[in-house]
Design goal:
The chain is of the alpha+beta class. The chain has one domain. Helix content is 26%, strand content 17%. Helix 2 crosses helix 4. The protein is globular and about 45 Å long.
Length: 196
Amino acid sequence: MTSPRRLLGAGVVLALALGTAGCGIRATSVPVDAGAAPTRVSCDQPRTASSTARGTVTVDVYLVCSQRVSPVRRVVPDRHSDRLATARTLLAELLRKPDQAEERGGFASEVPGGLSVNGPFPGDPAETLRLNQDPDDLPSYAVGQLVCTFAGTAAGAADRSVVLGGPDRGVPPLRYRCDDALRTRPDAGSTEGTRA
C-alpha cells in the first residue's frame, strides 16, 4: 500500500512538471531575433539651472528617450520674436550631442546632422519653416522633436502649432501639433500633419 507521504510527493512532482511544461511559448526551429534586451533608463529630466545671464532664456528641447519624445531644459540665446532665428537656435540644440547628464538619463536625438531651416516660400503661410529635407524623409521621432521643441516659442504659430515644409516648392507645408501621437509614435511624423 502506498503511503500518503509518497502520494503527496508524487503529486507535487507532477504539478511542477505540468507547470513548467505549459509556459505558453511554443518551441520553434527558426531563430528569432527579438533585438537587444531592454535597458533601464530613467528618462528623468536632468537638473539645469534656469537662465540668469542677460540675453538668454531657458527652453524645453525635446529629445528621444525610451521610445518617446521628452523635454530637457537648456539655456539658449534669447531671439525674442524672430521666428527664423529662434528656429535655427533651437535646431542647433537638437543637433548638439546630449551632455553627460542627459546621456545618463537615456536621452538621444534623431534629428539628422546637416538639417537646416529657412523661412517660407512665396505663397506659404507666414509662419512656415522650410527644412532642407522633406519632413516625411526624416528619421523616426525627428519631426516630433522639431515640432515639440518649436511649439510655444517664437518659432511656432500663435496657436502653438508648427508649420513645416521641405525644399520642394511644389509640396505645400503641413501644420503639426505636439500631441501624444507625435511624442510616442515613431511613424507619426508622416501621418499627423494637416494642410496649412
